[in-house]
Every structure is written in C-alpha cells, then in structure tokens.
C-alpha cells in the first residue's frame, strides 16, 4: 500500500501515514454509523451524499445528540465503500480486535486447514477428532465433521481480503485519477489565461497605434523653442496649432526638427 500510494501521488507515503488515515476514516465512519444505524426516518442520498430526513425528525436527534447537527449539512464522501470496509466490525464487535490479531487468526486458520488436509487420510472415519480448538475463528457450537468444510474457510477469507484490497485499490486509483485530471485542467486553464493575456496585450498595442496622439501645451511650446521660433511669435504659433488638431498632428508628424 505504501508503494502504491507513493507511485500514485508522486511523494513518499509511509506506513504511519496510511495507518493514521485509516484510523481517522474509521473513527469518522463509526461516529455517524452508530448515530443513524438504528434511526428510522433517515435515508442516505448518494447524489447529495447526505443522510436526509424531515426537519421534525432531525430536531429530537439533534436535541439528544448536538454533534449530529453537522451531518445535516456535511457530505459524507465514499460512504458505500466505507460501509463495506468498516460496518461489519461495528455490527459484530470485532472492532476491538487489532488488524494484526485478525491476520494472525486468519493465518492460523489457514495453517490448521492445510495440516488437517494433509493428515485426513490417517484418521479413522469413526474416530475423527473434534477440531474446534484448531481455530479461534470457529465458534464453540460449530464442530468440523469433514475436512472439506474446514478447508473451504481459507478461500473465503482470501476472497474477503482480496475484495477489501480491491476496494482500497479502487479508491486510490480514483483519487490519483482525480488529482491527475485536476492538474491537467489547471494546466489547460493556465494556458488559456496566458493566451488571453497575450491577446489582450496585442489588442491594446493595436489600439494604442490607432489612437491619435494628444500633445500637451508644454510639449508644443518646448518644440517651438527647440526649432527656433522667435519669442514674439511662439504664443501665436502655439495657439494656432492647438486650435487645429490636424495641423498639430501634421506638425509633429514631420520626422526632423529642421523640417518642422
């Protein structure tokens, strides 16, 4: 799982990260699962991802459990998958058993099944021992009469483990795909923004080139002094150019001061 998560997300995911995340997911699931499992009038909506009910149904629940108010507006993502993973433990009380203990029990049950199959030919049909003590997974009321019943338990456990791994794998793949898709969408959006920015700059430059240049009185008077208009005529010339924008554009359109 560490290897798969690290490859999917592009950074190192440690065992402790996964364990803490599963612990958080399980704790959150237990909080709302225990709250709604025996309550009537509530329905899970897979579209809104909410437990929905009429207001008069919510009121007594919130009054009895104030923390329930947040689940009226807080979506629960992947509820179906979390239910498949954790609801059985909440139903049969196995939640108090650690994951390591479960694995040890499954491994012992598998080994006992193999040993039973290997030695079955040596047992007399009428002296088959009771194998309740072979596996702690077998309840006291269950007695193994044939090896086939015992041997079938191992494939079932393997199938259950494989199913849970498939659920985890599917969730990881979906999250990774969403992240990749989000990155691609963000990159495309950024490219569009940059392209739009370039178009805007080009359009502004075109507008600037097409817009008539407005010259201030200071610019006109400075140019008249520069080209040597006599002092007594400078004011008259400036007023003449300012009154006629076409003549002023023509004046400044001449490329050199000498020609002006």
From TrEMBL:
InterPro entries: Myb/SANT-like_dom (IPR024752). Residues 2-59 form the Myb/SANT-like domain. Pfam families: Myb_DNA-bind_3. This is Myb/SANT-like domain-containing protein. It comes from Quercus rubra.
């Amino acid at each position: 799982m560490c290897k798969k998560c690290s490859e999917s997300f592009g950074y190192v995911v440690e065992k402790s990260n996964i364990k803490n995340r599963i612990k958080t997911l399980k704790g959150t699931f237990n909080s709302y699962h225990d709250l709604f499992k025996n309550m009537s009038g509530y329905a899970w909506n897979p579209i809104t991802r909410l437990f929905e009910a009429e207001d008069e149904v919510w009121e007594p629940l919130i009054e009895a459990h104030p923390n329930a108010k947040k689940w009226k507006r807080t979506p629960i993502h992947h509820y179906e998958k979390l239910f498949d993973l954790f609801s059985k433990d909440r139903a049969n009380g196995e939640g108090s058993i650690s994951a390591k203990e479960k694995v040890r029990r499954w491994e012992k049950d598998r080994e006992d099944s193999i040993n039973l199959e290997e030695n079955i030919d040596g047992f007399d049909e009428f002296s088959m021992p009771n194998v309740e003590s072979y596996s702690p997974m077998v309840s006291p009321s269950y007695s193994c009469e044939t090896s086939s019943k015992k041997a079938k338990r191992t494939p079932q456990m393997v199938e259950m483990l494989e199913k849970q791994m498939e659920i985890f794998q599917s969730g990881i793949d979906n999250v990774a795909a969403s992240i990749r898709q989000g990155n691609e969408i963000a990159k495309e959006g950024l490219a569009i923004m940059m392209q739009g920015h370039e178009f805007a700059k080009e359009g502004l430059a075109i507008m600037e080139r097409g817009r008539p240049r407005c010259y201030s009185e200071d610019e006109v008077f400075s140019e008249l002094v520069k080209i040597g208009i006599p002092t007594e005529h400078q004011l008259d010339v400036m007023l003449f150019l300012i009154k006629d924008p076409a003549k002023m554009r023509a004046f400044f359109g001449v490329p050199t001061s000498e020609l002006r």
